[in-house]
Amino acid sequence: MTQPDLTSLLRKLESNCALSEDDREAVLALPFVARTVPPASYLFREGEPPKHCSVLLAGYVFRHKIVGEGGRQIVAINIPGDAIDLQGLYLNCTDHNAQTLTEAVLGLVPMTAMRKLVEERPRVARAVLSHVLVEASIMREWITNIGRRDARTRLSHLLCEFACRVDAQGLGRRGYELPMTQEQIGDVLGLTPVHVNRSIRALEADGLIRRSGRVFTIPNIDRLRRAGDFSSLYLHLHKESAAQGPATSAHPLNDEGRAVWR
Amino acid sequence: MPRYRLNTVDGGRDRDAEGHRAGRRPRRAGEAVRYAGAVLSHEPQALWDGRECRVEVTNDTEEPLVTIVALAVDASAGAGKA
Q1: Would you call A151 and B42 a contact, using CB atoms and an 8 Å cutoff?
Q2: How confident is the model at residue A1 (pLDDT cuts 50, 70, 90)?
Q3: Average pLDDT along chain A
Q4: In A, which residues are within 8 Å of B38 by CB distance?
Q5: Of A73, A92, A107, B73, which has the most beta carbons under 10 Å away?
Q6: Residue of B14, B34, B41 with shortest CB distance to A198
Q7: Whole-model pTM?
Q8: pLDDT > 90? residue A172
Q9: Residue of higher predicted confidence among A255 and A233
């Protein structure tokens, strides 16, 4: 890996809010420490005060809550480029847990530095708010997914979302590694691992996905999108032009490949 | 640690390849009931056409431990109307 920097955080913040050159430089000048963390490590636990704004430079992270009987609900998956705990920017304690799925490289920005940046730069503040709002939008979609869709549709939806997000980050288009066990996928979808296994094999049998270990290939994205009742609207992947202000359409392009997602 | 499997039989046999860590019997049976309930909830067609849906809990050597059976039976007044 080359010398880590905060370019991925800048790209994420600019995905919903155009920044000036000064704002960009201020984001890239944030103090941070790069840290490599092994798989399954806790980044923070429920009840702890937020210390850092972690930017995921490489690897995957999941956020979860544990219920009284010990069951786990995974409430978010973070991919490279995501800022993991911007939701805790002005909160006194974290309300969920975060763990690495894979080995991960994190850029740890002190919360105080992030707060100062946000307070001094309104466009950055708007970008951070947009980021948090998109996370809330994804949360609404996940609630809908596990509350009102059947197992096959839930799984198809998750696979579409993951494909869409890794594509947006330039990490893969027609296939990707989903670095999760079937138990973890079940904890995202509110299903038992054996039900996840059954659903994966049903999608394979229908030709909607191909799988080799944890690498999923999607032969026909549009078919999987229909099976998953998936529209990427809630991901708000449209970019705002600095000159135009907020984008007016979530489906700006219809070119080959990306058209199926947007 | 020994493992147990939750195999589904509804038309074909859907073998649980990964299995689960074995717990106490009530917990295994509870898992099987929850799984059978989920399959029926998500795939009600599993019981159409007079088929039955079974979830068989087996140990690592495929010996049956618990079986959950669900089937729909037409009552005479409702025959052919469901």
Answers
A1: yes
A2: low
A3: 88
A4: 151, 191-192, 195
A5: A107
A6: B14
A7: 0.85
A8: no
A9: A233
Secondary element (H or E) of residue A224: helix A221-227
Q: Which residue has the higher pLDDT, A226 or A85?
A: A226
Q: What span, in angstroms and rounded, lies between the C-alpha atoms of B78 and A51?
A: 64
Judge: B14–A150 Cβ closer than 8 Å, yes or no.
no
Would you call B43 and A192 a contact, using CB atoms and an 8 Å cutoff? Answer: no
Read off the amino acid at residue A29: A
A197: which chain B residues are within 8 Å (Cβ-Cβ)?
16-18
* pLDDT tens by residue, chain B, 82 residues: 678 888 888 877 788 877 877 767 767 788 888 889 998 888 888 887 677 889 999 988 889 888 999 988 877 776 666 5
pLDDT surpasses 80 at A132: yes
CB contact (8 A) between residue A194 and residue B43:
no
- Which residues between 40 and 79 in chain B have a beta carbon less than 8 angstroms from any beta carbon of chain A? 41-43
CA gyration radius for chain A? 18
CA A137 to chain centre: 11
Question: Bridge partners of B66?
Answer: B57
- A193 contacts in B (CB within 8 Å)? 18, 20
Q: Does position A251 have pLDDT exceeding 50, yes or no?
A: no
B35 reaches A (C-beta below 8 A): yes
Q: Answer whether A17's CB lies under 8 Å from A130's CB.
A: yes
State the Cα–Cα distance between residues A12 and A132, nearest whole angstrom: 11
Cβ distance B14 to A193 less than 8 Å, yes or no, reads: no
Instruction: Give the SS3 label for residue A19.
Output: coil
